[in-house]
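Field: sequence (string)
Field: structure_tokens (string)

Example rows 1 and 2, in order.
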Amino acid sequence: MTDLTHAPVHPPVHSSGTAHVVTGDEEAIAVAAELAGRFARGAAERDARRELPHAELAELSASGLLGITVPREHGGADVRTATLAEVVRLLATADPNIAQIPQSHFVYVNVLRQQGSAAQREFFFAEVLAGRRFGNAQSEAGTRHVQDYRTRLRSAEDGGFVLDGVKHYSTGALFADWITVLAKDPADRLVVAYVPAGAPGLTVVDDWEGMGQRTTASGTVRLEGVRVPADRVVPHHLTFTGPQLHGAHAQLLHAAIDVGIARAALTEAAEFVRTRSRPWFESGLDHASDDPLTIQRFGELEVSVRAAEALLGEAGRAVDRARERLDDETAAAASIAVATAKAFADPAAVGVADALFEVSGTRSALDSLNLHRHWRNARTHTLHDPVRWKIQHIGRYALNRTPPPRHGLI
């Protein structure tokens, strides 16, 4: 495991620049299912050793899945949002670390769709279809709150800009070809700068030490006098001036990761009980899987996971309906549907991952089995944003038809 006291500064890990182009929704789901089957086989060992998934991300890039949200007029499949959520869920059932790494990639492809110029969309969508990856430099530590950004984009004499700041929790940056940096421009407006990995003054430090999601490499990005051409800056502040789906889109993918973790934990629990658990002596049974009390508990857990999956699917469809006719009403309905899915998925993932040990017995707690990775992953990932605030927005909407705020986190 990496010594995080003296965490290394890694060189950029670039994709090959060649990728299959997925043509539609059904193919996207089929490709995701195939990759999930392969990624699952090494997930426990990668977590235990904190082996970063370089080879797996190369496969992900080559598969074409990173380009499935590119608009059709630019050569992409432009899959439905519900399909994208299912792709992320499938990857998360195999390895939620791998599913989380491209979450920001899809978010910042969406930013280009909404606010990028024609030239920016043409250039970056070609990059995405070639398999190149976006990683984020978004969050900052030590600020007043999560949306208080100190990173600044200063004007340069040549008409471009210069970036300075420090970012934390920069999931995907270590593996990225392009790093998307949230910053404030000279007018104190929120922008996204698309910076090539390896740009002078940009360093990515592998210092992530979370108890879960260990191989997302969500470390630190330092920006010291990084030059950014004007045509690599997108006016993200415009996203929030009218009806928008930015927050719903981003939060839906987070919910999909949680739902995937819940399904993976329950699947592994069932396999363990069938093959390794001993029946409780008072049951008089030969197999733990025949214990009616254990069967009852599995029934309860299956209901929880299926409910999370159903809410995720409905949330994706709500976002798709809003994409077809975007206004204040459809945007609010989509955000509330996604918030509902997330509010249910978070405790479901943590609860099912915890119940794995309840139904499996003492042996399941052995560190060598690494079954606790499901709980660690769920508990870590669900800390991204508090569901208690989502419940508040859901309640206001249900009672008074108050639309949720346009801040990008619901």
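Row 2 begins here:
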Amino acid sequence: MRKRWGTIVVALTLLVSTVAAPAYAVTKRDIQQKKQQIQNVQQKQSSIESKLEQSQQEIARLKAEQEKVNAEIKKLDLAVEETSANIRAKQQNIEETKQQIVALRKEIEEVTARIEQRNELLKERARSLQESGGVVSYLDVLLGAKSFSDFIDRMSAVATIFEADRQIIKEQEADKTLKEAKEKQLNDKLVSLQEQLNELQKLKQTLNEQIAAKEKLMAQLKEEQKHEEEKQLALEEEKELLEKQEAAMKNQLQEMIRRQKEQEEARKRALSSRGSSESSEGSLPPVSDGAFMRPANGPITSTFGPRWGEFHYGVDIGKRGSSVPVVAAADGYVYRSYYSSSYGNVIFIMHYVNGQVYTTVYAHLESRLVGEGQNVSKGQMIGYMGNTGRSFGAHLHFELHRGPWNASKSNAVDPMQYVPF
């Protein structure tokens, strides 16, 4: 903000310098220089417009980038949402698998119990065979038949026992295989689910890291956009001031030829009225050489310096006639013309002399003949001496400031050092 105000102050100073007229006669060279100044300002405007266009393009690019990042963040948010749902599903699957493991462990315990029972039965059968002589016992059983019918019955019984033994062995092997298969199946499923869960959790962490990076990028883009918008605002302000400066320069260029003619006419009037001015205070003061001329005819009744316990920041010119004209002390620009409770009817004129800004003040006027925004020439009539505001007797209070006027009057200088009274 401080930098922006600095730019505005500098531009306003340039603006004042362009509208204030030079303190010398206008020449063709002056006109040419003024045209060159206008061209320079136009070139600056063109440069500002180019920078504005670049700034607008940069803002548009930043907005497009933000939209793109927003879309990516939304996409990542959806991916996180989906991954979180998958994580919950995997965790549910793991819990269900763990419950299945508990149930299968009970089943495995039952299978193990059956295997143990069959082991005991086989062991008992083996002991019986060993005690009876193994296979021979089967022959004894068959040979001990008392009839053919008994032999057939005994053969059927032996075959049944033999088949039962074979079935027990098959069931024993099948139960062992089932136990091993189910244990492996459960372990593999649990490991697989845990691996999938770990992968999902890593994916979610990666997605969250990407979202954080995108949000950081978004914040950076917004900051860049804010900076670019502030830059654009400063450029727009500078452009507006350059436009006003260009308008003021063109106005000055249009006035320069007319002012040159007015200056010449004022000099002629001064020469023609020089003799009569010695006897009449109501005539225009003669246009003198130098940067400034006296603003009105009449005696100096109060000078610059301490007076009545206060400081008097100007000189007073006494009124010695019914209607005493007041003229511009130098070529300049009327930037204030109004009624003040202290100054009464007052006119402020800004001058630009040899690269220096000056301000002249004409107070306690009876009437004002020029308004704000007017260009005036040295010696041009701007009002009549009066007694308005805080004034004790009709007179002209004239101030000269080396620089802009301010309320503390810190720029006030002694007019006697600049004006040939």
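free_text_note (row 2): The chain has two domains: 28-269, 300-417.
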